[in-house]
């Protein structure tokens, strides 16, 4: 069965960086893309970006351009999302999700809470 | 960027009610629309894709309709497990979520 398992919760200081991982299993990793979505406390869902696990192509949300980098390691079927220059309003649960052209976000990771606090 | 607007933001309903949530896109997205259900502390769950296709395992009381810029999610008979927040999402051009509709107990 398809599973996306994310790394554990993180606490970071303002200005620091965080790298969240998303390990995929149960399917051919390079046949799908991975998107990252975040949700601030009590707020809605915000799409952050997408990476093709096939060729590493990426698209990032405009508001995060320059601060976010998404990568994959096909040898371990793992996707990564790094966010730099953290601010307090980056405090959120970060999710990865498997993407196809026809069926979006059919499978999600369990979420990773990132808290940014001095 | 394509903007997605849901209405209402909150909906109070009783078990057995027919519930309809509306989602409008700022430009035509054909049928590239999905609906998700999210419960507190959990990841969203895909309910509907391509505007009206029911995801495997999702109860048939959920249905979606629409194309272009206006879409609806209908729950034909609200069940206790359906009290949650619902999000629409366009995937015509990258991905954008609506702001969510919370379905609460009346």
% residues in beta strands of chain A: over 45%
The count of strands of chain B amounts to 11
The biggest sheet of chain B, with number of strands, parallel, antiparallel or mixed sense and barrel status, is:
7 strands, mixed
For the termini of chain A, the CA-CA separation is 40 Å
List SSEs of chain A in N-to-C order.
EEEEEEEEEEE
- C-alpha-based Rg of chain A, rounded: 13 Å
Q: Unreliable runs of chain A, pLDDT <50, ≥5 residues?
A: none
What is the helix tally of chain A? 0
Number of helices of chain B: 0
By helix and strand content of chain B, what is the structural category?
mainly beta
Low-pLDDT stretches of chain B: none
Query: How many β-strands of chain A, per DSSP?
Result: 11
Order of helices and strands of chain B: EEEEEEEEEEE
| Cα radius of gyration of chain B in angstroms | 13 Å
Report on this model:
- The complex is a heterodimer of chains A (118) and B (106).
- With 118 residues, chain A is an all-beta fold.
- Helices cover 0% and strands 50% of the residues of chain A.
- In chain A, the strands form 2 sheets. In chain A, strands 2, 4, 5, 6, 9, 10 and 11 form a 7-stranded mixed sheet that branches. In chain A, strands 1-3-8-7 form a 4-stranded antiparallel sheet, with no helix packed on it.
- The model of chain A has no long low-confidence stretch (mean pLDDT 97).
- In chain B, strands 2, 4, 5, 6, 9, 10 and 11 form a 7-stranded mixed sheet that branches. Chain B has a 4-stranded antiparallel sheet with strand order 1-3-8-7, with no helix packed on it.
- Chain B starts with a strand and ends with a strand.
- With 106 residues, chain B is an all-beta fold.
- In chain B, 0% of the residues lie in helices and 50% in strands.
- Classes of the chains: A mainly beta (118), B mainly beta (106).
- Chains A and B meet through β5 of A and β4, β5 and β10 of B.
């Amino acid at each position: 069965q398809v599973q996306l398992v994310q790394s554990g919760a993180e606490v970071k200081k303002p200005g620091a960086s965080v790298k969240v991982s998303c390990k995929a299993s149960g399917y051919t990793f390079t046949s799908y893309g991975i998107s990252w979505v975040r949700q601030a406390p009590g707020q809605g869902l915000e799409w952050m970006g997408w990476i093709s696990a096939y060729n590493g192509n990426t698209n990032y949300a405009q508001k995060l351009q320059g601060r976010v980098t998404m990568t994959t390691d096909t040898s371990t079927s793992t996707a990564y999302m790094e966010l730099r220059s953290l601010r307090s309003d980056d405090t959120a649960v970060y999710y990865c999700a498997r993407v196809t052209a026809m069926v979006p976000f059919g499978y999600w990771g369990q979420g990773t809470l990132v808290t940014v606090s001095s | 960027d394509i903007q997605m607007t849901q209405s209402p933001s909150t909906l109070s309903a009783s078990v057995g009610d027919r519930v309809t949530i509306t989602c409008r896109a700022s430009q035509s997205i054909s049928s590239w629309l999905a609906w998700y259900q999210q419960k507190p502390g959990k990841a969203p769950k895909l309910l509907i894709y391509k505007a009206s296709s029911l995801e495997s395992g999702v109860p048939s009381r959920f249905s979606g309709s629409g194309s272009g810029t206006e879409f609806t999610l209908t729950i034909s008979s609200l069940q206790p497990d359906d009290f949650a927040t619902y999000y629409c999402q366009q995937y015509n051009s990258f991905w954008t979520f609506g702001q969510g509709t919370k379905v609460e107990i009346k």
